[in-house]
Amino acid sequence: MKSSKIKNFIKKFLFFRNSSENKKYFVIGLREKQVLSCLPKESTLLIARNFQDIFYALSNGYSFSYVGLSELSIYKAYFERNENLLDQTAEKVFKILHSNQELSFLISFGDTAPIEIISRCAAKMRDNNFLTICVQHGLLLNDYHENYFEEGSFSDYLLVMGSTQLKAAENIFEESLKVLNSGPMWEPHKVEEVGSLEVVLIAHGGGKIGKDDSQLAEKTFKRLSARLEKNDIPYVYRPHPDGTSSSSLYKSKLDVSEKQIILSGKPKVFVGFVSSLLYEAHLAGHTSVGISLEKDKSTMKNNPKLSFEPDYLISPDHFEKFCKEISQKNTIKKISRGELTEVPLKERLKETFREIELIELRTS
Fold this sequence. Notes:
The structure is a single chain. By secondary structure, the chain is α/β, with parallel strands linked by helices. It is built from twelve helices and 14 strands. A seven-stranded parallel β-sheet has the order 3-2-1-4-5-6-7, with helices on both faces. A five-stranded parallel β-sheet has the order 10-9-11-12-13. The termini are far apart.
């Protein structure tokens, strides 16, 4: 009996739905928490994908609707070829996206996941008063090809995190997608003006990286770390969040701190391949070093070119020369990029949504 009551409570809790009638911002998931925290609580609803999202919403006073089970139902509908189950899921999402605002925003950090696709379709059925906004997460690729869908392709607007990403987006996407530069989706990192020399090796990873490429990156980093140790240069190794990179080689050198922590404090030298963290470090004022394998005999199968210009671009043949050069520096200085990195995120988002409303007003 007690077990039955607990199950009923959990069921009611999971399907508890805050009123969305007066909401203007509907945010799918918490990939970038700072975006949600910069939106007005009274007019924002979090579409929670897991328990972590729910607890964040409860702890911080945000309205939410849980779609985790609906997301599982989408996969079940696909494998069972059950259209009725898919219709039921779409109906649930459609009910969540109900607003009496003249214009509302469906905000996601990607637009190709099942719940993002269903939500986007449901939003477009709401009398055209919904706009879909994709916030950039990850680095855009300069050597984009037709059989690969870049995040942001299917939304009304894409918010990119820098001028170089804006330029890359203009080369990738069709004119129908409106691209705006809102700067990085985080509050300005507090980076000191000067710091002692330290190198951060950023693991290769992410959805675009295969196992062979990841192993080749680790082999390359092993060569570089040997040169760093030979020249008595302190360094740490930053594994990729998806867990594809091996961290057993580094042990005491491993850094798994929060991203905000490693990007703040004293300026450092960040080294990596194609990485959003490398770009974030670059924007924050750290020294950025990209590794190129174009001249190496062992070329990665998936080694796209960086869509921004790092402070250094080196190949494995020049590791020794690079290490000797930086070892002569006792300190590392912060580099000012002249981007939007000093403007608070709340101000940037407010200005971005104001600009979107003006664009829609002009084109209506």
